[in-house]
Amino acid sequence: MYGLAHLGWSLKDYKKHILHTLHDHGYVSALGGFQHIAAGEKPHATIGYQRKLDCDSSAHGVADAAINYFNEKHEKPFFLSLGTFETHRPFPEPLKKHNPKYKRPPATFPDTKETRHDYAAYCTMAEVMDEAYGRIFDALIQTSLADNTIVICTTDHGIAFPKMKCNLTSHGTGVLLIMKGPGIQPGQVNDALISQVDIFPTICDCIGIKHPNWLEGQSFKPVIDGQKDQIQDSVFASVNVHVSKEVSRMARTKELLYIRRYGSRNTVALPNCDSGLTKNVLMRSGWQDKYMDREYLFDLIHDPMETCNVATQSDYQDKLQHMRGRLEAWQIRTSDPLLHGDIPIHGQAIIKDPNEIEP
């Protein structure tokens, strides 16, 4: 899938969604709230969900629907996907407890009145999401489902700030992955490199079913069980079309991050960055005109903020070639269309001019 469903894109094969494998093993499925992989009047049916819960995409609306679902009689195991609008923009006004005067923004941004306010507003919305999650967890306990339910909390990109969401630095790809449930020892913090493509095989192992023969990714259950420190030494990611076309690929190890950009554009596609105070601050200082390299190599040990591109430095050329090779091997393994030209443009796709400013 190369772009957003509500802008005309779709999955190549919805039958490879995990719920179809679970259906084959006696599970029922339901969707509550937000999803980003199908559009139309009944997107849940397009994906393959047997049921759509009656709720909007607000965090507490989704929580209400989930609690009602838990209180039903369940004769079969279930797969329930819950998606919330939080923490998409626009953010609400900051709560008093998140006073912008004392809310330091992420270190990638200048510490100004506007960026502090923007981050305080984000934290306010994140707190709403946390409260809704807490209600869902409490309901699992109250309905005696907690001891027999695996809960996975994750998201699809970095937070909605410039240089984060829709970017392949760690600020954009380093997202939460929190799990709880039977067989998962609480309180663990794992530093293993994990990709979301690894979640599907991990679920298979946790519930004791075979992996489909086409399944990609590696199960990280050995990491959860404490048998291994890691399952792989590299992970990969891509950007194709968000609102505008801005194609790039990433390969990452624990020590190095390599990004390759495609196409002729050498400045940021501003529509791919959500509107907000922090974006305004950067644009007033010329962010939209800053030159972007074709290749980036970051030394994650000596440059953890990923600010210094060492791809042209002579003492990094062996490492650069190594990371290029890792990326190319992944592209070959996954049949990346960039190896033969460009990404295929879906006939219904809406692609915004990258020279515009707003999404």
How would you explain this protein's 3D organization?
With 359 residues, this protein is α+β, with helices and mostly antiparallel strands. 26% of the residues lie in helices and 13% in strands. It has a 4-stranded antiparallel sheet. A two-stranded parallel ribbon has the order 1-2. The protein is globular, with a radius of gyration of 21 Å.
SSE blueprint and pairings:
Blueprint: H1 18-23, E1 28-33, H2 43-47, H3 59-70, E2 78-83, H4 113-142, E3 151-154, H5 170-173, E4 177-180, H6 199-207, H7 221-224, E5 235-241, E6 245-252, E7 256-261, H8 277-284, E8 295-299, H9 317-333
Parallel strand pairs: 1-2
Antiparallel strand pairs: 3-4, 5-6, 6-7, 7-8
Helix pairs in contact: 3-4
Taking pLDDT < 50 over at least 5 consecutive residues as the criterion, the unreliable ranges are none
Helix content: 25-40%
Rg over C-alpha atoms, rounded to the nearest angstrom: 21 Å
pLDDT averaged over residues: 96
Number of strands: 8
Give me the CATH fold name of the largest domain. Alkaline Phosphatase, subunit A
The CATH H-level superfamily of the largest domain is Alkaline Phosphatase, subunit A
Strand order of the largest sheet: 5-6-7-8
Q: What is the CATH level 1 assignment of the largest domain? A: Alpha Beta
* CATH architectural category of the largest domain: 3-Layer(aba) Sandwich
